[in-house]
Amino acid sequence: MANRSGKRAFGHLRKLPSGRFQASYINPAGLRQRAPDTFESRAAAGDWLTVQESTILQQTWTDPTLRNIAFGPYAERWIKERAGLRPRTIQLYEWMFERYLKSTLGPMNLSAIDPAVIRSWRLNLLTLGNSETMVAKAYRLLRAIFNTAVEDELIRRNPCRITGGGTEKPSERPVLELPQVVALAALIPQRQRSMILLATFASLRYGEVTALQRADVDFEAGTVSINHAFTEVPGRGLVLGPPKSRAGVRTIAVPSTVMAALKDHFQRYVSDSPDAFVFTGVKGKPIRRSHFNGLVDWKAAVAEIGVPQLHFHDLRHTGNTLAASSGVSTRDLMARMGHDSMNAALIYQHATKQADKKISDSLDARLRAADGESGS
Description:
- This protein is of the alpha+beta class.
- It folds into three domains: 57 residues; 81 residues; 160 residues, Intergrase catalytic core (hpI Integrase, Chain A).
- It contains 14 helices and nine strands.
- The radius of gyration is 30 Å and the shape is elongated.
């Protein structure tokens, strides 16, 4: 008969009036799940049910009604709902999504994006001339979004499987010699001079040094405490919040010569209020990063010391290198830098060991030359 039903250990088969077969089963959520199409034969419908049973037994089953979720809306929701992101990070993620992900991957269903699609997407970005650094950042964002999709049981595996796809290869940044730091500070207007010294010799980020308040500086102990950091948010300007990470909250010992310069700075420019900002512009307001270079004529100053490509962040880079060369432990270096991970500290220590080896080799060559001269 046309409506004759089939009995099976798993699932249910039914012959339709058209002569085709309909298959269904009870899914892990306890709901009846029907095949998206009918089948020409009972055997074909049975094969489909066998596959569905296998995915349930292997715990790889996913709800097919969820597979039609487009990547674009899911990614946008992921960015909005991601807990603990700083405003600057949210801004960066939104910008990367718009620039690198939305047009190509946005319209596609999550389940349709496989490793081949990811490889093609990445190659296309590089072919179009995007930097390896930015493509690596976009890849890491994409991988994080798909990790959540796996947790949400929307897909079985993360399709981002390119070895080294998220690894950045930034260009080597300059490290200043001590005389260059002193010369640079001398070329900066007096109101911001100590800012250069402190950013370097306390290894501070721009947002950390500009957020320093009078109460954060202890002249008796010779320390500065990092309790806040400024972040620039479009439409809101400077936002005072916590440092970049939990490890960013720290107290740093500062060389006495720098503290002496800072004390003079306090007498000239810092009010007596405990929450008064240490470094401000001529109107007494914190200095936005976008205004700093013009305020101090940074371009002329760094050209004068022979490092025209120097960025403000390179001062922290210089300070970290100097700290690593002092022979401190990895943990101590991490604490000073304000890092949760030891990766950055190990990089600086490795670089210092390489420099130390060069010094040793140079001294050895000079000793050999001297020994040769004395023996001749």
